[in-house]
Amino acid sequence: MNPHLCRVALRPRGPLEVFDLSLRLIHAHAGRFLRLGLLFVLPWALLGGAAVALSELDVLVLVLLPLIFFPLQAPATLLGGRLLFADTVSIRSVVYELTSMLRPLALAWAWQAGTLSLGVGCGLVPLVIVLPVTAYITETSLLERVGAARSFRRSARLAGSNPGIALAASAGWVALTMWGALVAESGGQALIGFVLQLGQPFGALSTGQITPYMIFGILAVQPIYAIYRLLLYVDVRTRVEGWDLQVGLRAAGLEER
């Protein structure tokens, strides 16, 4: 990390301002994020869409879909984290670094999945509590390079120090996922049914059916959410740990050398 190359002003921001900043970051490096999406998201979207279109397991596919959210978000988290402090970051280096950290990441995700499953099993109120606590597990694992148990504790500590930001991260995930599903469903139905005049060969969400368009939309927004959550993580560290001062002092130390 080169503190002299920090691409964003490290200062407290509201959730909406953080979301705007995340869109600006994605737009500034649209080519890299597009290639990353083609590499990681598109294969899963095609597989999930085919499973829904060609089988009667559409409900099962929808239930199992959250299991791949973490692997889809991690590459964007790593790429975004590197782009905050670097001029150029290659997709190859992101893939290589991600591959080298698969084991600790898998353990951290297992902690997260187990905790979320416990929250789901206990009801809505425990789930609302558990979701923010586990919000930053991917960031603490990937960017701080700590083990699974410590990443869980770090995520819980950051969430507990500013519950509002952690809750915004969880609410943003739910809202963005629903938005992606609805937008992709509307766009797919318009393209296939209205433009190409092919009707509804895969059914429609309005009639209670899960469609490939919906699956694609849900998966496509996960990297966008990953960048949003990453910048919320940066924001909470700035508020709680004075990360802006740490980066500034490190930059000053490099200048003295």
Describe this structure as you would to a colleague.
Helix content is 77%, strand content 0%. By secondary structure, it is mainly alpha-helical. The protein has one domain. Helix 4 (69-83) packs across helix 5 (91-100). The radius of gyration is 19 Å and the shape is globular.
Our count of domains comes out at 1
Q: Label the overall shape.
A: globular
Helix content: over 70%
* Structural class by helix and strand composition: mainly alpha
Strand content: under 5%
Write down the overall mean pLDDT: 84
The count of strands amounts to 0
Reading the helices and strands in chain order gives HHHHHHHHHHHHH
In DSSP terms (H or I, runs of 4 or more residues), the helix count works out at 13
Largest sheet: none
Ranges where pLDDT stays below 50 over 5 or more residues in a row are none
| Gap between N and C termini | 16 Å
Main attributes of the structure:
13 helices; mainly alpha; 257 residues
Question: What can be said about this structure in brief?
Answer:
Helix 2 runs antiparallel to helix 11, helix 4 packs across helix 12 and helix 9 packs across helix 10. This protein is mainly alpha-helical.
